[in-house]
Write a structure and sequence with these properties.
mainly alpha, two-stranded antiparallel ribbon, two-stranded parallel ribbon, binds arginine
Length: 460
Amino acid sequence: MAQLWGGRFTKSTEQKVYDFNASILFDQKLLEQDIEGSIAHVVMLEKEGILTLEEKDLIVKGLTEIRDDVHDGKLVITSEYEDVHSFVEANLIDRIGDAGKKMHTGRSRNDQVALDMRLYIRGEVLNVSNDVVILLKTLYDIMENNLETYMPGFTHLQKAQPTTLSHHMGAYFEMFKRDYLRLQDIFKRLNYCPLGAGAFAGTTYPLDRNYTASLLGFEGPTLNSMDSVADRDYVIEFLSALSTIMMHLSRFSEEIIIWNSNEYRFVEIDDGFSTGSSIMPQKKNPDIAELVRGKTGRVYGALVSMLTTMKGIPLAYNKDMQEDKEVTFDAIKTVKDCLELFEGMLSTIRFNNQVMEKSAMKGFTNATDAADYLVNKGVPFRDAHGIIGRLVLVCIEKGKSIDELSLDELKEISPVFESDIYDAISLKTCVEKRLTIGAPGPSAMREVLKINKEFLDNIK
Ligand code: ARG
């Protein structure tokens, strides 16, 4: 047990208490951030005349060596220390002696851990953003190449109207675009530096908080020292954004699973992204999509866990807040893995264009267009709706689609039908006529592709 406190205690901590209290097993993930923050802190202390140049140089050198030694495996982080902050400080003092004892001047572990966590989340917001952009690019490619790949669109999982694969993928493009923008938003809000807040009431040293903030790439210092140490909103916002990403991935996975089923066969997942069965030799399962769908729960769990942890904490720092780490680290890893695997699966998936097109032709997806055809010939829409409803019934009885009926058969239902009906309800016409921005018509889709290309180009 190597701890940073003990002076006012007459008895040592029970081992069980020590273990329960310690966070080193998981907060060692913050080593880089802890060292980066400590370097900025001592550079500022020297500028303010609180440390000598020599002391500052010794500390920075010691901290850099600790980081390198851990990287190289020469120094191992063990549970002998309470947390990563204690580990770094104790090692520093071992290395450089008394100067090391001055590093923590004008700082508390409360603002230290608040800083470390913010730096960590800030980096991960960018990492997840990059993963989302990779997925957006894959979606864009599929959209661009499938402007005339017809497929049924669904409501209530029933074939509804024809659309294109480009349009369907475009829906996901918009979802993940919002996810990307949400992350940018969170970044802006969290990019303020809590260092200098001390335990919660600032310090009596003449710290230059603007300077440390700028050294660490923040917009500026946070403006209330009590809030600085007690705030984990940015963790909650990030977990919320991650949950939304998972919700989108999960819906998408659900569709891939349905499309990959024997009944649909709209897609074939690449062998490299499928798995087999130990007993049924014919099986090729969509496990990746199922796991992505399944892992959504643990990311939501992290969000609810953090919301619950924070809801009853009086200001300012309380140890409950140490619970922010494990769930958040797990959620971040889960989302990054899911984005990467899902993108790999999607970029190698084979779309069975003919099956999709046939399916669109079979499910009366052109019934709305057939009604619109009658409307254009002067039939009021409500009557047209009724006529086509009866027509669909006849088709079901005869086992035919609308376009498979002869003109005579059509005329039996309504004399308004002429031979131009066939062209009016072909899949191509049905889609091409949908021209308003956001609709599946290829010309409308081309406009959207242009806007989204600009969006992607502006990201770099
Ligand atoms: N391990 C602690 C955490 O993660 C560090 C802060 C400790 N501060 C304190 N006052 N005990 O929150």
